[in-house]
Amino acid sequence: MTRQGWLLAAIALLGAALALLADRWWRRRQEARAYLRGVRYVLSDDPDAAIAALSDAAQLGTPEAVETYLALGALFRRTGDLAHAIRLHRNMLLRPGLEPARRVEVERELAHDYRRGGMLEEALAAYRVLADQGDRAAREGLRDVLVDLGRLAEAAGVQRQLSSRAEDPLLAHLLAAQARGELAADVERGRAAALAAVTAAPRSADALLALAEAQGAAGLAPDAAEAIGAALDEDPGAALLAWPALQAAGVAAALPLVEARLALAPDDAPLHYLRGRVLQRAGRTPEAAAALRRALELDVTGETTLAMRDLLREAEAPAPDELAARHDLLVLALLRKARPVRCARCGAESPVRQWRCRRCGAFESFVAPG
Ligand SMILES: [Zn+2]
Asked: Start and end of every LapB rubredoxin metal binding domain (predicted)?
């Protein structure tokens, strides 16, 4: 090739490089514009236009666009706009050029959307695909959806895979809930699950109370009483949750247990409440009314008052000679100030304390109103 030929080739190459650069510059500019437009729509509260504009940006496939998309999807979900969150995440999955690692992230986000939107079967399927690929966050999601669906034994199975520690309070909660579900149909299966719960976390009040319920159902009243005592030693704040266990243990075992505890803590409102309920079961109605009244008077947090309102709402009509005492109690329970207990994690309110928040699925998240 001549000297002139080399020169021409060099010029052609340079031209090609410039053209490439110009093209990249043009694309980046377009993408930046689409991005800015999307941000503007978000700011002006027009989610549909924002999704459309950001789709243009994401089509060009830069990490920034994907990042923005994900942030927007999380924002939609946080504000409860699940239809838009789902549409946005589905859109993202349809775009070509999404890196495999990012794809997993988007699929996980979509599964979260489904769960928050109550589309539990869709969430379950989406989480399961990711969980099978070893995604830990998806496994946690899978476990929570199984709990939402009431498939507690499966949820416990997933939690066992997740947990590496010897003691696992969360697994204990799951197995305790499973035990309570199974007790109605099959006492021995329920008892096995309760024993597994206590094995998973020997100091879990939830597990110990579930065990007491199972022992009581199996006719083992002294074992039930022992487990209730252990539960209240571990967590005196769980007293209001101990009623099903006391009921299962039977009056003969429950009354001495509650009275022995009251002797040590005479001003404890939940214990007076429990004593009242046991006395009621025993048919000692006037004493029961006095104990329940005492519980209301001693209630500092309002939680016993709330439990009492719940009890009175569910209670059967009183016998004619008990009407006055019942009325007295009802008025007192309604007059006392009591705010609902609140989930410390998601803020959901509940009239009575529960082991698990129905809204966010957290265990032991309820705090006494104060
Ligand atoms: Zn919650």
From this structure: 342-367
